Recover the amino acids of this structure.
């Protein structure tokens, strides 16, 4: 690095300006204090970074911003916004939690996926899911189970229950009813009971 040119300018109206000029590196560093704003600027031949501080605000403009610390705490008494015009990634080597004392909305314009070794969803009152094109749940290697105090399965057009073997059981009573027609069909059909009534 060659010789640096350093200047200090004092002005009763404009304040203090400190300039360090690196001609070989094509970099100029400037610190300005004008009585209301503290400005630190580093200007190169391709990029410029700026730090601007007033009595109620701090603005930082830079191509790349890196903050490293053992512990980081960010607090705001009012709204907080984190926005990226490109990819935004959050990572943690240990447990991560998101908590709010009010409503939580998670939205994606495209697809959304959640993957984990185990996933548990719990609602204190009601849990619902809805999709206009279809809903599917699959247990590829185990049991798929739905349990509740009352179970209702309903379809607007057709409802099907299929399996290599299908059992319909009730501890007290089973009702099979069709308002227009009911069909029981099989190569071998068996109806048995201590009391059987047909018709």
């Amino acid at each position: 690095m060659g010789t640096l040119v350093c200047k200090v300018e004092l002005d009763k109206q404009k304040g203090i300006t400190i300039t360090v000029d690196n001609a070989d590196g094509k970099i100029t560093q400037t610190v300005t204090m004008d009585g209301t704003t503290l400005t630190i600027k580093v200007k190169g031949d391709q990029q410029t970074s700026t730090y601007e501080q007033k009595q109620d605000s701090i603005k930082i403009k830079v191509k790349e911003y890196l903050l490293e610390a053992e512990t980081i705490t960010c607090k705001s008494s009012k709204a907080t916004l984190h926005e990226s015009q490109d990819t935004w990634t959050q990572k943690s080597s240990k447990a991560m939690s998101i908590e709010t004392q009010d409503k939580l909305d998670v939205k994606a314009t495209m697809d959304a996926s959640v993957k984990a070794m185990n996933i548990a969803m719990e609602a204190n009152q009601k849990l619902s899911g809805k999709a206009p094109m279809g809903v599917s749940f699959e247990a590829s290697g185990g049991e798929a189970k739905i349990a509740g105090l009352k179970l209702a399965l309903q379809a607007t057009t057709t409802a099907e229950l299929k399996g290599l073997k299908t059992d319909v059981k009730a501890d007290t009573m089973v009702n099979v009813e069709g308002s227009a027609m009911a069909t029981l069909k099989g190569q071998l059909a068996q109806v048995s009971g201590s009391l059987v009534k047909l018709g």
About this structure: The two ends are 105 Å apart (CA to CA). The first strand starts at residue 5 and ends at 11. The mean pLDDT is 92. Strands lie at 5-11, 15-22, 27-33, 38-43, 48-53, 58-61.
